Amino acid sequence: MPMFFGGDPIWIFLTIGALLLSLIASGMVKSTFNKHNKVRTVGGRTAAQIAREMLDANGLSHVEIVKHPGTLSDHYDPRSQTVALSQSVHDNATVGAIGVAAHEVGHAIQHATGYVPIKIRHAIFPVVSFGTRFWYIFLIAGIFLEMMNLIYAAILLYAFGFVFQLITLPLEIDASARAMRTIVDKGYLVGNEVRGARKVLTAAAFTYLAAMIASLIQLIRLLMLTRRR
Fold first, then answer.
1. What is the DSSP letter of 113?
2. Which ranges of the chain does DSSP label H, i.e. alpha helix?
3. What are residue 80's phi and psi, to 5 degrees?
């Protein structure tokens, strides 16, 4: 037990570093969004209006846009086929809001066109959902009961979470790329507005990268546990 929860100084350093990276990434996306969510666009159309036009132009008139509570809680739900835009995005005609809304529409387009990575992510989601809640219980039980099978099960469950994040990063990058192409081609944003939206989406992508790195460090640490026992 102490062997796992203590560990070599290098692993403690890496774990703390990964945590700091995640905190920095989270702070960066919030500050970047807040900055550009104060910049009103020349066009004056709200994020919800532009998202609706983007969906309709891609044959997705059946996809509903709903207002979702919270800040930066925006997401696309493939089960209900809805684009949920947070209160700080939905009714705002700002650079930050439009960038975020276009990104979520990018996910809706991925789903509609059968984009392979999004299919894989949806397929493994039930296992990931279970694993993120219970892998640690399996691990603790395996260490206390000295049952390697439980430890292996914990690592497998955690590994599904890492694979999920590994798939999510390029998925998010692709959704942002689709969003930026449409924003530029349709003239929803112009000049410095385009650069501002790109900064918001780049900062958001960095949070997924940070989460993936942190997850990888933890997965390696778990694998090292099996070699020491």
1. T
2. 2-5, 9-36, 47-57, 87-90, 95-112, 116-145, 148-185, 192-228
3. -95, -5
C-alpha to C-alpha distance for 214 and 209, rounded to whole angstroms: 9
CB-CB neighbours of 12 under 10 Å: 11
Q: What angle do CA 214, 174, 33 make, to 5 degrees?
A: 70
pLDDT in tens, 132-179: 899 989 999 988 888 889 999 999 999 999 999 999 999 999 999 999
- Name residues whose C-beta falls within 8 Å of residue 207's C-beta, 6 or more positions apart in sequence: 22, 25, 26, 28, 29
104 counts as catalytic: yes
Residue type, 179: A
Count of beta carbons in the 10 Å neighbourhood of residue 158:
22
Evaluate whether 118 touches 77 at the Cβ level (below 8 Å).
Answer: no
Catalytic option among 104, 146, 172, 193: 104
How many angstroms separate the CA atoms of 76 and 104, rounded? Answer: 6
Residue type, 52: R
Q: Tell how many helices (H) and how many strands (E) occur in the chain.
A: 8, 3
Strand 82-86: give its sheet, edge to edge: 64-68, 82-86, 75-77
Q: Do 50 and 188 touch, CB atoms closer than 8 A? A: yes
pLDDT tens digits along 26-74: 888 899 999 999 999 998 999 999 999 999 999 999 999 999 998 889 9
Reduced to 3 states (helix: H, G, I; strand: E, B; else coil), residue 56 is: helix
Distance CA 179, CA 13 (A): 37
pLDDT > 70 in the chain, percent: 95
